[in-house]
Amino acid sequence: PVMGKIADENCDEVILTDEDPYDEDPYAIVKMVAKDMKRTPGVIMDRREAIRGALARAKSGDAVLITGKGTDPNICGPRGTKTPWSDADIVREELEKLKAKTV
Q: Is CATH 3.90.190.20 the right assignment for the domain spanning 2-102?
């Protein structure tokens, strides 16, 4: 909940997304993070879609802050599942797609 409150107080726009739910309900986690936020955040549960959306909305001079995963190489899901993941790689891929659309 603290991260949601900090984001709400310091960011122009907040998008909450899925990140390492393990065996917890990812929607319940997002709801808990949003609990102390004064504004209603955007919610995009697909992490790639959330990153794409944030990058697409950004204007010149904006900063996009993607938190939660850091350099963790996997998204950890139910029953010990691990999906290989890199926020940095996803950002690079999505920026390339956005650049290709504007050229």
A: yes
Q: Is the pTM above the cut of 0.90?
A: yes
Where are any strands of DSSP class E within the chain? 15-16, 42-43, 74-76, 82-84
Does residue 21 contact residue 77 with C-beta atoms inside 8 Å? Answer: yes
What is the C-alpha separation between 80 and 60, in angstroms, rounded? 40
Parse the chain into domains and list their residue ranges: 2-102
Q: Would you list the DSSP string of 34-56?
A: HTT-SSPPEE--SHHHHHHHHHH
What phi and psi values does residue 34 have, to the nearest 5 degrees?
-80, -10
Tell me what the mean pLDDT of segment 26-51 comes to: 97
Amino acid identity at 5: K
